[in-house]
């Protein structure tokens, strides 16, 4: 494939991603993508076997970028606790990005389309795997002391992200600080670490301890 043709495909994929983020997968059309890319409708279909192929390429590209953004976020950060904090903060964002908006569209479309179900499963798998790496490295360095299997902690963190992110759909009920704190508290309890720096009048999260036996009390 010639460089000019490859660039045109990338431009059309970017235009399709923009249309999907704004109008949804179901409402994306050849005409809308052509207008966004400032080309003819014939040019859109010339570079892809079908419009469905273009949409699927756009969705795959967004999912790849969504996962890559999370990975880049922690590149170069050596402190395991800070890496985990950054991951959680990114997982419960203040605003819906175009990438996250399209992921929501995939959730909606997955019910009727096996291809999108695979895409959705890929998103979850990548996020869980990235958390696992952060937790395993942190555990090896002594920063975390997991109280359950690392894979289960990673899955729960992704599940909390997904659940709280649904509130982004209703801006009037978006309480990001509370949702973020709840997730950080779960991570603290599951990993026996401190992620929340207490304020001047705020006590730190207590570490569970074993109650003394009756013989020890005597």
TrEMBL record:
Residues 197-218 are annotated as: Disordered. It comes from the Bacteria. Keywords: DNA-binding, Transcription, Transcription regulation. Residues 6-66 form the HTH tetR-type domain. Residues 29-48 bind DNA. SUPFAM superfamilies: Homeodomain-like (SSF46689), Tetracyclin repressor-like, C-terminal domain (SSF48498). Gene3D superfamilies: Tetracycline Repressor, domain 2. InterPro entries: Homeodomain-like_sf, HTH-type_TetR-like_transc_reg, HTH_TetR, Tet_transcr_reg_TetR-rel_C_sf. Residues 207-218 have a biased composition (Low complexity). GO terms for molecular function: DNA-binding transcription factor activity; transcription cis-regulatory region binding. This is Regulatory protein, tetR family. It comes from Arthrobacter woluwensis.
């Amino acid at each position: 494939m010639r460089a000019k043709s490859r660039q045109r495909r990338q431009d059309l994929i970017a235009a399709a991603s923009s249309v999907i983020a704004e109008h949804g997968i179901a409402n994306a059309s050849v005409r809308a993508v052509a207008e966004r890319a400032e080309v003819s409708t014939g040019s859109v279909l010339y570079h892809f076997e079908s419009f469905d192929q273009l949409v699927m390429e756009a969705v795959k590209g967004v999912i790849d970028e969504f996962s890559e953004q999370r990975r880049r976020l922690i590149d170069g950060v050596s402190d395991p606790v800070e890496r985990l904090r950054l991951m959680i903060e990114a997982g419960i964002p203040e605003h819906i990005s175009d990438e996250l908006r399209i992921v929501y569209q995939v959730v909606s479309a997955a019910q009727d389309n096996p291809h999108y179900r695979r895409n959705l499963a890929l998103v979850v798998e990548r996020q869980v795997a990235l958390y696992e790496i952060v937790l395993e490295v942190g555990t090896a360095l002594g920063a975390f002391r997991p109280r359950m299997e690392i894979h289960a902690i990673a899955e729960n963190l992704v599940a909390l992200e997904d659940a709280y992110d649904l509130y982004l759909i209703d801006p009037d009920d978006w309480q990001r600080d509370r949702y973020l704190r709840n997730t950080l508290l779960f991570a603290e309890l599951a990993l026996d670490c401190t992620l929340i720096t207490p304020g001047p009048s705020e006590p730190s999260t207590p570490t569970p301890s074993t109650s003394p036996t009756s013989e020890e009390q005597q």
